[in-house]
Amino acid sequence: MYVRPPVKMKTFVISASLLILSWAGVDNAQAQLLVEPSGGEQAVFIHERDACQPEDIPDAPARAFRDANGLTHLFATHHINFASVGHDLDTAKRDCHVVYQGAHDDNPADFNDRGWLTSFWTRDGTTVSALVHNEFQANLRPSLCPSHIYEQCWYNAITAALSTDGGFHFTRPANVIVAAPAFRFDNTVGHPVGYFSPTNIVKLGDDYYTIVGAGEVGAQKRGNCLLRTNDPSRADSWRAWDGSGFNVRLGNPYHEPANQPPQVCAVIDPDHLRDHIDSLVQQASTGRYLGLIAFGGPHPGFYATDSSDLLHWSEPRKVMDSAPLIAGECDNRSVLAYPSLLDPHSPSRNYNVVDDTAYVYFTRFHFKNCVGSLDRDLMRVPVTIKAAAGP
After folding, report:
1. pLDDT (tens digit, 9 = 90+) per residue, 115-149?
2. What structural domains does the chain harbor?
3. How far apart are CA 151 and CA 249, in angstroms?
């Protein structure tokens, strides 16, 4: 799963360049939202206690929705996708049947290797559309990745999944590509490429939006891509912001001529969004959109930023700290990642609206000798949300 840089069962390194605190304020800062912890940590999922199998880990930001029977489905999952189900966020418990899993397909053109359910939308609680963080892990195919190094042969896309039983099972629809790289798999790039980790789906006007991370390669710059559709159930209806409008279809490069000019997004507000937005919700009392970002560097932690139009964002402000990981000094440390905002009393079936109180959900990584493991827990901290006094 995409973190900055990837955090899986690999060595975790945080670059100081990820956190730059010299951002200039914009008009958004005048109405900026302040997110403040209001209580201690609460355990949601403890791997040693709750996991259905060793690879059942919180490897993505927490998302939730309510089905037609009023049950809440809570996801913070790995590529073998399990959910926690209950009457609400407080009572959701692990359900040990596999909700979704990629086919481990050896052909990158099929976009069906490993998939993380990372974003959901449902109108009625019966039919549920999902966006999938889809990894082709060529390092597992020696003939395709001579180095055998995960990060050097990582080819990523956003695909779609669909449930017709309220979210208990998801399958792949016929039109599956939401956003794919402009080029076919290339094992010489040397770093993760493609589009990563879609946020929640939110509504603005008559349309629906999500933000995905973009890896830098060719004409595509590194940053956040804003995607829009008028129908979240149709994978091929999503269009990316190109700097003047939503005119770019980040489609399937295997279905297009190899010499076609590359289709890329224009990253949004790079002066303020120095890393990928993990969580995107709307704050009910102000109508503003609130994003959470995990930063490293000299002041690591979770930061909040907000916007009225999803294109221009306020200066991020710290919500909570995360322990830095320093080479040679990381035994028994824990690192936090994948922040998301969830309000147990959200009026939205899709939990994409929060009020003045909510929870920041996050994954706690437990490290030994600076190397990650499968020992990861899902935690949450209660927070209050209010307008900041000033920039």
Report:
1. 999 999 999 999 999 999 999 999 999 999 999 99
2. 16-387 (2.115.10.20)
3. 26
